[in-house]
Amino acid sequence: MRLKCNSNNLIYISQKVILGIKRPNSLEGAKVLGKPVLINAYNIVFLSHNNDGQVTFFMQNGFEISINTFYAEAEQILNSAMQSKEDEIN
Description:
With about 90 residues, the protein is mostly beta strands.
């Protein structure tokens, strides 16, 4: 499992696809834990590419979660989560 969502609008991002979690002017800490990152789809402002060309979830709280996956896969998971559907990308 690389990306997964459930009917509660939660998106699970596997550690192996996370390239970085950062917030301007803060330390990166979540990547070193080695556990999946769990985010609520409603906290995502938009999905796009960052300045380095990586697929990135931009969050309401200012965090950017960059992942190593195709844009279409991330978009599929985000749309499924917003519609309260279960989906998974392996």
